[in-house]
Amino acid sequence: MEQPQQSAGPEEAGAEAGKPPLRVGMVGYAFMGAAHSQGWRTAGRVFDLPLRPVLTALCGRDAAAVRAAADRHGWATTETDWRALIARDDVDLVDICTPGDSHAEIALAALAAGKHVLCEKPLANTVEEAETMAHAAETAFTTRGRLAMVGFNYRRVPATALARRMVAEGRLGPLRHVRVTYLQDWLNDPEFPLTWRMRKELAGSGSLGDLGAHIVDLAQHLVGERLAGVSALTETFVRQRPLPGGPSSGLAGATGGAAHGTGTVTVDDAAVFTGRFTSGALASFEATRYATGRKNALRLELNGERGSLAFDLERLNELWFHDATEPAVHAGFRRILVTEPDHPYLDGWWPPGHGLGYEHTFVHQARDLVHAIAEGRVPEPSFAEGLQVQRVLAAVEESAEKNSVYTPIAD
Ligand SMILES: NC(=O)c1ccc[n+]([C@@H]2O[C@H](COP(=O)([O-])OP(=O)(O)OC[C@H]3O[C@@H](n4cnc5c(N)ncnc54)[C@H](O)[C@@H]3O)[C@@H](O)[C@H]2O)c1
For a pocket test of ligand 1, which of 26, 36, 97, 182 has the largest count of ligand atoms closer than 8 A to its C-beta? Predict the structure, then answer.
């Protein structure tokens, strides 16, 4: 086995001093790797955590590149094979930030080796993989107290967490409509290269699994119920794209030029679907990478008998609330600036009005997982919840293949 490359270990300082460590090993160091690093680095310095996250080992396949990423993001050592990372005795938790084709294999091996697991979304590329992972997570919990969580980080925007609280408190009354879109535009250029996100064998699906998974999870989380069935359309607008010239990262990529040729896109570019919640509320969903001008517009609106809530990720410190019980003469949507110390996650941050951003969702994710591990309770969203989202995605694909026929979600 290759020896881990060592550099100076992270200091035990400030708010974290004297706390038992939670030693993290992370696989993948590009977009989500950077975001998760930020979360692990920061959570214990902002929040009073029962355990001290330690950035113990970072894993990638290129030794020089992973060492550079470890230095940049604050990881003590590196590995070039995820199996070696999992074999280490000084790693308590494996954080999976790779494309979906490797989620199942890494998570199953990590759980079998007695590690806690945080796995990026979507949980897997198929329902079958997700079923195996959910089963392994349940066994790891019941036999060894090991925990597994999926990275649906948009539950952890303070404004969406407040929306969840308000729905649960009954501020909206019985829900009638759930309207959710997740709009990006980075694929609009037909010359954008065919990165892993456009290859089914690596990504599982396209906008559906990438963006649709987020909004299905968030909608079900906010409503506090599951979708019963869906009717869907999907489309691939650009079927041939230039092959990339090298490794891609996040939503960026460079073409290799004419010498590299083109390849076939094997996933959806956009998915549009309607759904019915078990209580009868009607839902609509739209996930696309072709909404020109929309960069990361996860927008939702909930309409209930007693009121409505609206949110837009591009203005993530705000939640809009209409109280339908007020006299019509002065009722209307009003803006809640979600930066008060009593708002979810805000107790550790800045004075009111000093807003948060995208990266803070990963700090909150690390915080919540550390608490769950210290308390020995299954974190949310669990692998079982990740599996259920996978079943919704599969029903969307099945419905789209059958010209939008209403497709119940399997239990
Ligand atoms: N929660 C969110 O908001 C969010 C946002 C973007 C991506 N994601 C998810 O995160 C995951 C990663 O996406 P990304 O945008 O970070 O991708 P990326 O292309 O930016 O990074 C992927 C990383 O995985 C590494 N990798 C791939 N296969 C590997 C292997 N077998 N062993 C070791 N390393 C390997 C690559 O070298 C790279 O470092 C995906 O599941 C994606 O759906 C989640």
Answer: 97
